Amino acid sequence: MIRVLAIETSCDETAVAVVENGTKVVSNVISSQIDLHKKFGGVVPEIASRMHTEQMNLCIRQALDEMTLDDIDVIGVTYGPGLVGALLVGVMAAKAIAFAKNIPLVGVNHIKGHIAANYIEHPQLKPPFLCLVVSGGHTHLVNVKDYTEYEIVGRTKDDAVGEAYDKVARTLGLKYPGGPKIDELAKVGDKNSIDFPRAMLDGGYDFSFSGVKSSVLNYVNGCNMKQQPLNAANVAASFQQAVVDVLTYKTINYATANNIKNIALAGGVACNSGLRQALMAATTAAGINLYYPQPLYCTDNAVMIGVAAYYEYLAGSRADMHLNAVANLAM
Ligand code: KG4
Ligand code: ZN
What we know:
The chain is of the alpha/beta class and 331 residues long. The chain starts with a strand and ends in a 17-residue tail after the last helix. The strands form two sheets. Strands 3-2-1-4-5 form a five-stranded mixed beta sheet, sandwiched between helices. α5 runs antiparallel to α8 and α8 (232-257) runs parallel beside α9. The chain contains eleven helices and ten strands. The structure holds 5'-O-[(R)-(carboxyoxy)(hydroxy)phosphoryl]adenosine and zinc ion. 5'-O-[(R)-(carboxyoxy)(hydroxy)phosphoryl]adenosine binds at residues 11, 135-137, 162, 165-166, 177-180, 183, 267-269, 271-272, 299-300.
C-alpha cells in the first residue's frame, strides 16, 4: 500500500490530504480564503501567501489526524502552475517534511491533478480518454494517453473560461468567485434572449473567450448608458449558453473525429450545471461515456494532487531538494 500526503497551495485554498493507492481518500482538509479575497473582487497574491503560511501546519496536522508522518510513504506537492508566492509555501512545507523524515518527494502539476480527480470516484475510467480542463486559470482540451502522459490538443488563446465567468459576474455586481453565482442565476434566465458571440476559430480545437466576455461588458454598459433595465438572469443564461456551446461543440467534435469513447471534465468550471447537462446530452447522443468529479473534487483540493502524485511515483518520478515553484509550469 502506498499512502501519499498531498499538499496544494497554488491559489487561494490551503489544502492537505492523505490518499491511499490513488483511490482511497483518508482525509481531505481545505482551508478556503475566499472570504478574505472577496472584498477585493479577486485573489490578492500576498494575502494568499500569508494565509497559506498561517494555515499550512494546522492543515497538515488535521489531515494526519490519528496518523503520524511515519505512516506516510510519499509526499506529493503542487509546484505549478499558480501564484508563485502561494506555491512556495506548499513546496517548502513538503520539502521540509521530506527532508526531515527522509520520505520520497513528488512534484505535481496542478492541471494534471485536476485531471486525476476523475479517478477518485470512477475506478473504471482508465486512459486513454479525452479531458476538457476548465478552471479559473486554464482551458485545455487534453488527450490523456496514459496516467502520466498527456497531449494538449486545444487551448485558450486568451482568457480561461473561469476567468470569463468571474469577470462577467463582477460586471453584474456579483461577488468573487462569480462562476457558481452565474450558474445559479442562469437557471432562471432565458438562454436565447441575447445573442453573444461563439468563437469557433475556423473549426480548430483552440478556444477564445475574450470576445464573449467583452460583448457581455458592452451589453451591460450599453444598458446602463441608455438607462434601460438590465435583466441579469438573461445575461447570465445567454453568456453561459454561448460558452457551453463552444466547449461542447469542440470537445464532441474532437472525440468523434478521433473515435474517442470516454470524455472527462476537470477544473472548477466542471461544476457548472449547464456545461454538465449539455455535454451529457451530446455524449449520450454520440454513444460516448462522460465522467466528472463531484464538485468538491472539481475545485482546488489536495486529494487530486495525492492521486496524481501516486501515479507519478509509480512511474518513477522523484523530486529532490532543488524542487522550486514554477508559476507558468507547462503540462
Ligand atoms: O479549478 P479551480 O478551483 O481553480 C483554478 O485552478 O483556477 O477553478 C476556479 C474557477 C473560478 O473561476 C470559479 O468561478 C469557477 O471555477 N467555477 C464555476 C463554477 N464553480 C466554480 N464556474 C461556473 N460554474 C460553476 N458552477
Ligand atoms: Zn485549480
